[in-house]
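ENTRY TYPE: protein
CONTENTS: sequence, structure tokens:
***
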Amino acid sequence: MARHLLLVGSCLLGAAWTCAAQQKVVFENQDVRAVDIRVAPGVFEEKHSHARGVTVALSDYDNETIDYPGKKVNQRHVKFGEVRWAEPVTHEARNTGTTEQHVIRIELKQDAPAAKPPAAPDPLDSLIACKDTQKLILENAFVRVIEERVPPGVAQPKHRHAHGMLIPLHDADIESVDDPGGQPVHRQLKFGDAGWREPVVHTVKNTGTTELLNVRIEVK
């Protein structure tokens, strides 16, 4: 079954237009739109829409939202690093706390792919090959979300990832080697720098002095 492009909010209600002062598109392709949301304490966001997707909290914060058309009120206390699946929504929002609300929201632009019969376990699947450093946060018909925690100096064995978004929760230094035949590449990962990653088989070593902490959203 073909995957059909979904509308990511109307021109009147799309979050990046209505809330331009608080929301900035930092990446977009045919599969996703990544929005960096920063709302100061006490600031109110007018009615706007989001497509379904995943939110990753980059700060502790408190907020209140009013969903439309039912005007349901939601009050949340969110912790740094919290990952949440979000259905399509039109809402107003206010930062009701004393700290900045900082969130990366990955909005999905495609329908879920057709269901496939169960496959045999892949020994290179990152959750198998790197079971000590990678764990499943959530999975549904659209995405698989993985938390990656690698202590300084630790190398992860060869493993596989599907395409998707990588969101570093700490600054980090890594060395990666793509398979087959890749050369070692040194990279600096910056806190909150959401980026798209193509499918890859690689090894990764934390070459820095701090824990490597990432959220990877694999898009199905």
